[in-house]
Amino acid sequence: MDRREIKAIIEALLFTWGDPLHIDDIKNILELEKNEVKQIIDEMIDDFNYNRRGVQIIQINNKYQISTRPEHYDWIKKLCTPNKSKSLSNAALETLSIISYKQPITKMEIESIRGVKCDKALKTLIDKNLIKEVGRLDKTGRPILYGTTEEFLKYFGLQSLNDLPKLKEFKNIELNENTINHLKNKE
């Protein structure tokens, strides 16, 4: 099997699967070494980007998925029916930020940081598949530990949590009125 045929098979697998597909699954199907599969997929990512194709291959941890390019959103949304889903509230965004940086974290720790209850925000984030239960703390009551999902990474265009901006970067940002207005207009 030549390299071109392997790329075509990988493309077909990613297209058919729809959700992120783990590199080990691709490796097992093709009966190739993991490093070789990774190298081929990296070449495919470069090819897709160089040729400015309408779809791209995105990496989420050790998984890959075919997706549309964000710059084509305006055209794609004309094809799709209007989405009635609401955007996240400030409380949900605040809770999601805390979970993304402090995970795994309990509800009580989140509420301690925010200073208010977060039941509704947690339910919203779970319903939107942005967070999930990742375990339980080994102490009285065995409180639930929360963490982010792969959908979170996909939604924010991150390959891994290491791509999150460092907290010290936020301290160096001085928000002036223009910046605040710009951020409000992007919402």
Automatic annotation (TrEMBL):
Signal peptide: none annotated. GO terms for cellular component: cytoplasm. It comes from the Bacteria. One of its GO terms (biological process) is chromosome separation. It is found in: Cytoplasm. InterPro entries: ScpB_csome_segregation, WH-like_DNA-bd_sf, WH_DNA-bd_sf. The keyword Cytoplasm applies. Homodimer. Homodimerization may be required to stabilize the binding of ScpA to the Smc head domains. Component of a cohesin-like complex composed of ScpA, ScpB and the Smc homodimer, in which ScpA and ScpB bind to the head domain of Smc. The presence of the three proteins is required for the association of the complex with DNA. PANTHER family: SEGREGATION AND CONDENSATION PROTEIN B. Participates in chromosomal partition during cell division. May act via the formation of a condensin-like complex containing Smc and ScpA that pull DNA away from mid-cell into both cell halves. This is Segregation and condensation protein B. It comes from Caldisalinibacter kiritimatiensis.
